[in-house]
Amino acid sequence: MAGARPGSGGAGEAGEEPAGRAGAGGGAGAGGGEELGLDQALALALRWLGFRARTAREIARRLQDRGFPEPVVAAVLDRLQGWGYIDDRRLARDQVEGARVRHIGPLRLRAELLRRGIAPPLADQVLAEGWPEGAELEQARQLARRRWAQLKGSPARSQGAEARLHPGDRPGSDPRRRAAGRLYRYLLGRGFHAHVAERVVRELVGDLQDGAGGGTGSHRSM
Fold this sequence. Notes:
It is found in: Cytoplasm. This protein is mainly alpha-helical and about 220 residues long. The protein has helices spanning about 35-50, 55-65, 70-85, 90-100, 105-115, 120-130, 135-150, 155-165, 175-190, 195-205.
């Protein structure tokens, strides 16, 4: 069976049908036999793969939502994997590369991979390969520099930007310390490990002295 290689577009692109809608000709068995159901399932799967690459679990879920029986779903996955249309390892590696462009860290990417149906051992292996020692730290540094510039702004804007209280800020704390805390929480939210986020904030902001003295403190004080 011929078909276009999986594209890289996002879910919900123009022309893509929701998983729960019945396709042309109905679900499995609508044509009166398992072979016809297999042909229909393959056609649907290839259509979905034309919009973007998908994991085996994503294709299986969509076919199950359409009412195709398990033997048909298993046969579709077997054929698509044999043809190279579905490759969870390749997809995971591509996602690791894309994470750098999206400026997200390994923790957030791992959660995304698991949500898409990548097996945890495979996700961990690909992440270990794609994020060698020091890569996460350097990526966090680059992102933090840009974010810190936004938090501080120009001298005319920095007073209002740093003084404004945000969720997680401690009332009465030094404005610069609060800005550092927001930077730390931002890096956590992007999926970087806590020890990496803390190190980057310390490197970038330096020792923050307030009335009580002391530096940035641990992540609990940020």
